[in-house]
Amino acid sequence: MTRGGKIGLGLLGLVVVALAAFLTFGPGIAEAGMNRIQGSGVWPVSDRARALHAKLFIADLHADTLLWKRDFAEAATRGHVDLPRLQQGHVALQVLSSVTKTPKNQNYESNSDKTDNITLLAIAQLQPVRTWGSLLERSLWHAEKLHRDVAANPQTLRLVLTQRDLAALGNGPVGTLLSVEGAQNLEGKLANLDRLYDAGFRMIGLAHFFDNELAGSMHGERRYGLTPFGLKVMRTMEAKGMIVDVAHCSHACFADIMRLAARPVVVSHGGVKATCNTNRNLTDDELRALAKNGGVIGIGYWDAAVCAPTPAATARAIVHAISVAGIDHVGLGSDFDGSVTTGFDTAHLDAVTQALIDAGLSDAAIAQVMGGNVRRLLMAGLPA
Q1: pLDDT at 31
Q2: Helix axes 284-293, 251-260, angle to 10 degrees
Q3: What does the alpha-carbon distance between residue 306 and residue 316 come to, in Å, rounded to a whole number?
Q4: CATH class of residue range 35-381
Q5: Long-range pairs, 291-294, Cβ under 8 A, ≥24
Q6: Closest CA relative to residue 93, chosen from 310, 296, 303, 236
Q7: DSSP designation for 154
Q8: Could you tell me which residues come within 8 angstroms of residue 214 by beta carbon, excluding any fewer than 6 positions away?
Q9: How many other CB atoms are there within 10 angstroms of residue 366's CB atom?
Q10: Strands 201-205 and 91-99: what pairing?
Q11: Per-residue pLDDT, 1
Q12: Which residues of 44-63 are buried (b: 16+ CB within 10 A; e: fewer)?
């Protein structure tokens, strides 16, 4: 072999080694950089707060953990959510969302639908080839992963599909409910809603970071309202017992859904403009409309939702939402593992209980916010 040939083989070997290293370590490094905990993640919690927290039914309306290449049932050294941390945080129900497409240079002001970050992630994580070019298949893959974890851990993990499944939660297996963040994964076909339902999805957010065939986004270019196709999807979801999520919907879309929805909806994760005036959060008028609909807003923990990743900032947003919408319409929506920085992970949710005590809420009100309101809405909305 010539010297040039040996050099060529050497370079090829380096490329192969670099590619292998990227595929092995790259996705984990990327996730660790995107899903951060500021500081130690541990906050002072009183004996009273710990005792109350241990008695609560706790429900979180939104986490993006299924996006990442991790074993959900094993404790992780990165991110915010896994089964052991859910157990430590005394969480009874975790809604797990399927993220299928996000724009490059993602921001809260204006995003096009022409680019996608998730394709490279799907390839780098060595997901099935069918997921590389199909948003629907990405969601079906996320469902497949969760089904596999539930089957492997029947004593500690349960998939919630019906009211009966939900009613069985509490002091036993952690419940999980499959959701979608952005119904662009329907790929423009109403029939694909049946495929998602059959895979176990029971909640769908109509829009995410860009305008799609169903609805405008708060962060899109045109920010239009609910489209005729979006209305068909919403009506079909209501008939099937699927919860409509209006998080990320444009203000025009939000108004349309409040006018047209036949059943209560959720804002799975977000905040309120009164305590954090970002292009992500609801106005007081929107909070009142949500209450009239019978819906629930899940208040988040990250800076764009509450303007500081602290339990106290989350409590301030919760207290304001209660003052406007009423105690029956406020819950938790962490956005854990959603490329956000928070002040704690799900193992340390008792810090939120402490912050709500410090804010002057009664034990009964705290029980509603931490999960009672979400359980009531889902019991009314899920299939029997």
Answers
A1: 84
A2: 30
A3: 8
A4: alpha beta
A5: 291/324, 291/325, 291/326, 291/328, 291/329, 292/258, 293/258, 293/261, 293/264, 293/265, 294/263, 294/264, 294/329, 294/377
A6: 296
A7: T
A8: 183, 184, 186, 206, 207, 226, 227, 229, 230, 233
A9: 24
A10: unpaired
A11: 66
A12: ebeeebeebbeebbbbbbbb
| Sign of the CA dihedral running 212, 217, 220, 224 | positive
Distance CA 291, CA 217 (A): 21
Nearest to 298 by CA among 243, 233, 354, 347: 243
Q: Which two tokens stand for residue 253?
A: 């879309």
Main-chain phi, psi angles of 357, to 5 degrees: -60, -45
Q: Which phi and psi angles does 15 have, rounded to 5°?
A: -60, -45
Helix (H) or strand (E) holding 245: strand 243-245
**Residue (of 320, 348, 349, 312) closest to 332 by Cα position:** 349
Taking the chain (384 residues) in runs of 10, the rounded mean pLDDT of each run is 62 44 58 89 97 98 96 94 98 98 96 97 96 98 98 97 97 96 98 98 98 98 98 98 98 98 98 96 98 98 96 98 98 97 98 98 98 98 96
Distances (CA, A) of 308 to 270, 311, 330: 13, 9, 19
- Work out the angle between the directed axes of helices 228-240 and 251-260 (0-180°, nearest 10): 50
Which residues have a Cβ under 8 Å from the Cβ of 369 and sit 6 or more positions away?
Answer: 318, 322, 327, 330, 331, 332, 356, 361
CB atoms within 10 A of CB 36: 17
Q: Is 342 left (phi over 0), alpha (psi -120 to 50) or beta?
A: beta
Report the alpha-carbon distance of residue 129 to residue 256 in Å, rounded.
Answer: 38
